[in-house]
Amino acid sequence: MATAHEAEPSWEDLIGSNNWESLLDPLNLSLRKLLLRCGDFCQATYDCFNNDQNSKYCGTSRYGKATLFEKVMLESASDYVITSFLYATARVSLPEAFLLHSRSRECWDRESNWIGYIAMTTNERSKALGRREIYVVWRGTQRDYEWVNVVKGNSEPAECLLNQTYEDSEGKSNDESEQTPHVMFGWLTLYTSDNPNSIFAKQSARKQLLRKIIELKEKYKHENPTIIFTGHSLGASLAVLSAFDTVENIVHDIPVTAFVFGCPQVGDKAFNERLKKHSNLKILHTKNTIDIIPRYPGELLGYVNAGIELVIDSRKSPSLKESNNTGDWHNLQGMLHVVAGWNGKEGEFELKVKRSLALVNKSCAFLKDELMVPGSWWVEKNKGLVKTEDGEWIMASPVDEDLIVPET
Questions:
Q1: What are the tens digits of pLDDT across the range 149-166?
Q2: What is the pLDDT of residues 39-54, one digit of tens each?
Q3: Alpha helices in 25-142 (DSSP H)
Q4: Catalytic center residues
Q5: pTM as predicted
Q6: Is 285 in a helix, a strand, or coil?
């Protein structure tokens, strides 16, 4: 609840209609809660992803659309429903941090990975809110961050995302090179690649997404819809790219917001200028000031930052180690812990919402040892092995409700 000194912002304010003016310092409580919700949606992609290359289901979600939120123990899981899963492939070889494949000869699909989902508020929750909230959530990288040294920061023209009708109405200068937006090749490849050999990625992640957004936009056009993109790390880059694509090509009269965490740079100045021309698109980037990933690929290669930044500092929390591990600085749960207690660069760290400290160590060991929370404690029971009646331990197959099936 807002204090006497803190007027409750409207939903439009929270999603950036006024560029979050007066909401970031100090961090408004309602905005803080919205950021944490988006962060928890991102964390769900990590918690459900099967990254065990010994499993023939490596690269999928362990849980189906109907059970995912419940099984990752998402707060207020019953208020949201997943409508679609998203799958990605790549027309070139990318590091395993991006696309992870099973070693099994019975692999579910050798060409693609599960890359995220589309969710929305339930009918009951939408009615109570007076709006339909649609969330597009992209999965981030699974391994350490050595991929930065492997994936070159080469850029590529983003012509495949540009709306030619919009370009014609705007006109072009004589210098075409300055006019054509460029984005990082790796992000664009994952987003736009398809593979006819895959029953999950016959269409690119881009086409899967836009088709579903068009469907939801039409279905809920009378329910005051809002579209929110969110992601962490690689997922943050995909969130920015896909949010831009959405407003560039199919959504012009609905507010679209990207809440991203630890986002690498996506494109060049021309891309950023094109992005800013869409008044219905807002981007808020939450980043840890000591995190190196948001500085990649770098200004020397022509990249610029996109959106408005909420810069936090994990060193302010008394619960976190003085770590020299760059993975800790970039860890999503570490950032969400800091968001929960952030009171500005000059303010004292103090948790403003109830959030378990143990969450920080879900996939790292960033908490101080005296807090007695084991590191990387979120693991599948017995790493997915089950004991058969004859005493053998084997990799379990998904239960019926979690079986992976192509999207229709």
A1: 556 788 999 999 999 876
A2: 999 999 999 999 998 9
A3: 29-48, 68-71, 123-129
A4: 233, 291, 330
A5: 0.94
A6: strand
